[in-house]
Amino acid sequence: MTLKKLELSGFKSFGRKETLFFDAPVVAIVGPNGSGKSNVAEAFRWVLGEQSLKSLRGKKGEDLIFNGSSQLGRLSRASVAVTFDNANRHFASIDFDEVVISREVFRDGTNEYKINGSTVRLRDIIELLAGISIGASGHHIISQGEADKILNANNIERRLMIEEALGLKIYQWKLGESEKKLGKTEENIKQVESIRREIVPHLKFLKKQVEKIEKVRELKLELQTLYRDYLKREEVYLSFTKENIVKEVTGPQALLADVSRQLAERESRQQAGGHQAEIVVEENKLRELETKIRTLRLQKDDLARALGRLEGLLEFREKEVKKVEPGAKIPFAEAKRLVEELDERFAEIEKATELESVKRVANNLRASLNDFLTNYENKDNHPGEVRVNDDLEKVREEHSKLQSQVQELDKEEGNHQTEIGDIKENIVRLMQTAQTAEHDFYELRAKKSDLELKVRTLLAKKETLAIEEENFKRELGEAGTLIGREVLEYQANDISWEEVRNEERNIQEDRRRKIERIKIRLEDMGVESSEVLKEHDEVVERDAFLAKELEDLALSRESLLSVMTDLRGKIEVEFNSGITKINQEFQKFFSVLFGGGSANLELLKPIKKKDELSLEMGDEMDESSFAEATEDDTSLKPGVEINVSLPRKKIKGLAMLSGGERALTSIALLFAMSQVNPPPFLILDETDAALDEANSKKYADMIENLSKYSQLILITHNRETMSRAGILYGVTMGADSVSRLISIKFDEAEQYAK
Ligand code: ATP
């Protein structure tokens, strides 16, 4: 690591741009009082991030800008740039062969920092420099009159200086950063935990809602499955049953119409009398014929009696004829009159319809005949042969006449008997027909009521079916409302009529009841809301996110704590070993400068009071600083005391040392620290001012030795010191009050210094 150059422009007395090159291990800057040498050291301090204006001998930022002179106008800004060689990447984070750190200040007090031309924050510069053990305590830049700064500092400040000199600042800084991060992490953990706690009841509520919604979904799925089966079966059942009823009812209905028609016909025939009437007609006929026959028989009886009498008379006449021959004769007129009378009587008989009248006529007839006979018995008119023969003849005629009449009657009766037979047969036939008809009638009526029952049953079935169809439609509607269009998927279900027919209807009823039960449960559960689901998902996601964040935070806390433990351990170990090494060097340098004696650093017990810390840190230091970063631990760390014992003197403790002795002690310690952990450069502004000649020599020797490890920039009036410099710069200030830099030779140096 080498310091290459320093460029000043408008900084304090450097009204014009000046550049210092540091091409030698030791560069000395010489010049008369007030020419601007210390301004160079301050330019270093400033460009490296110094915040204390006091240590820059100013009150405000503006004081650092060239304020003009009688010959040169004042400037609006001051800038300083320091260039480091980075060929071997001491600045590991910057991949350039050179690193230029620059700082600019404007009259309004604003500062601008740049690294290799890019604007950066102050903390970036501090971080970068911490990497090369350069920090705010400024042990590597000893300003004029501040050689014994480390002696004046308190134990804690001293410790910080030593830590910085030992290159532990970077760890301190990292530790501070880690602590800050830890603080933030813990704050975040608390915040996240509190947010999570707030979420818990809401999440619980949402979870319950979601469980309910899930249950509803499950039930709906179950319902859909049930519906798929139920609706298809019902549809198949209804469609086929309807078809079958229609088919079944057509036959019986037609048959019923036919049977009804037949019955109606029969009934109307029945009303018209039917077979019975015919039978009555026939029976009447029969009765008439029987009356006729009875009359005929009476007539026949009469005729038979008349015949008997005639036969008696005939016998008598024949005897008479034999006996009386020639016998009494009956005049013709008498006979004719009798015949006419008889004829008349017979005519009456023939006409008579009643048996009585026939009897009466027969009596008259008998009387007439008796009269006639009596008449001729009394008359003495017995006869001769003629009259007896005549009478016989007449009786014979009469007899044959009656016989033929009887024959007529017999014939007539025979006819009537035949007719009666026919009528009776007819009646029997008619009665048989009537019986058959009646039987058929009752059969038809039975058939009709059978058919009516059948049709009624089927129509009732049809009505039931219509109700079932209505129910089906309603169920389908409800299913649609509950499940949505997907319910129609039931149609794709492949269930055959056979399957439905072969199943008991009550199984389907059971399905419906099951569906009803689920519907009721769904109703009880209320309506699902996708809003709740969305919210639940969001809250769960948020909670998971927070949980993950907590996990991450806990992990980073763990890792921060472990990093911090590591850092603390490292700092402690390195600090302790550093102190040991510094003490060795301190003792060496001290005894060289004082020709004996002893000096050492002593670690004190930890001091817990924070307010003991009063590091002279910048008023402008608003961003993170080392002091802040380590403040917390500092109070717990042991401070560092300096013990000195001068040779041949009973002086112990810093307070009793003379000014020169203080300067020597300071130099011994400063050089010891630089020896143990050489800084890249060391700027010493008239640290050698108080040295006498002998000590100047020793000092110069030490410088030479130190320059093997660190670049040295020495502002000096001391000839011995100048003699060890590889490059000498002379600072002059002319009438224009502007500091100028010129490279000079050693021979010229003494001249310049005056
Ligand atoms: P010595 O050897 O006495 O310590 P020096 O060479 O170290 O002196 P400095 O202290 O660096 O001198 O320079 C101080 C000079 O810088 C003074 O002359 C002062 O007027 C000048 N100076 C300081 N600030 C400004 C400024 N803002 N503008 C112009 N000149 C300034």
Strand residue content: 5-15%
Please, what is the average pLDDT? 85
Tally the helices: what do you get? 17
Total strand count, please? 14
Q: Strands, helices and their partners?
A:
Blueprint: E1 2-9, E2 18-21, E3 26-30, H1 37-47, E4 77-85, E5 98-106, E6 111-115, E7 118-120, H2 122-130, E8 141-142, H3 149-152, H4 155-165, H5 169-271, H6 274-323, H7 332-351, H8 355-378, H9 385-483, H10 497-501, H11 505-525, H12 530-594, E9 598-606, H13 626-634, E10 638-645, H14 659-676, E11 681-685, H15 693-706, E12 711-715, H16 719-723, E13 727-733, E14 739-744, H17 746-753
Parallel strand pairs: 3-12, 3-13, 8-11, 11-12
Antiparallel strand pairs: 1-2, 1-4, 4-5, 5-6, 6-7, 9-10, 13-14
This protein binds adenosine-5'-triphosphate (ATP).
Adenosine-5'-triphosphate (ATP) binds at residues 12-13, 31, 33-39, 63, 66-67, 144.
Summarize the structure.
A hairpin with a 2-residue loop joins strand 6 (111-115) and strand 7. The protein has a six-stranded antiparallel β-sheet with strand order 2-1-4-5-6-7. Strands 8-11-12-3-13-14 form a six-stranded mixed β-sheet, with helices on both faces. Strands 9-10 form a two-stranded antiparallel sheet.
